[in-house]
Specification:
Elements (H helix, E strand, L loop, with lengths): L14 H17 L3 H11 L12 H5 L9 H11 L4 H21 L11 H6 L1
Helix pairs in contact: 1-4, 1-5, 2-4, 4-5
Length: about 120
């Protein structure tokens, strides 16, 4: 059984991450494209800056919550594949979401190695 959002290894998404996903979903809606079409479009719109094309599952994973904030390359490919603008706002939100995520992750405390004595302890970590 999976832990509820906000518990377990992946923290619940922060407000900037939620705003990023909302913005990306609105771009997709404006484009009228399916996720498969976005992946296909990424083959056409892939730039020379290393963004290139993405797999068929990447556009869906970019907006999948409660996953971690997506990498910049995936956001770039998603926005360009939508083809309706919004890139500047997407990256402003992406930077805020990444900073927010780093701050939350820095506050997590991993157990000390000396506290792991059994396989169950290791699995819990």
């Amino acid at each position: 059984m999976n832990p509820p959002p906000g518990q377990g290894s992946t923290p619940a998404p922060g407000r900037h991450h939620l705003r990023l996903v909302g913005h990306l979903m609105s771009l997709k809606e404006r484009s009228g494209c399916s996720y498969a079409q976005l992946a296909s479009n990424s083959h056409i719109t892939g730039g020379t800056d290393g963004t290139g094309s993405v797999s068929a599952t990447t556009p869906k994973r970019v907006v999948d919550l409660p996953k971690d904030v997506p990498v910049e390359r995936a956001v770039t490919a998603y926005v360009r594949a939508c083809g309706v603008g919004g890139e500047e706002e997407a990256f402003r939100l992406w930077r805020a979401a990444r900073a927010e995520s780093r701050d939350r992750l820095a506050g997590l405390r991993a157990p000390h190695v000396d506290g792991i004595r059994t396989r169950a302890d290791l699995a819990a970590v």
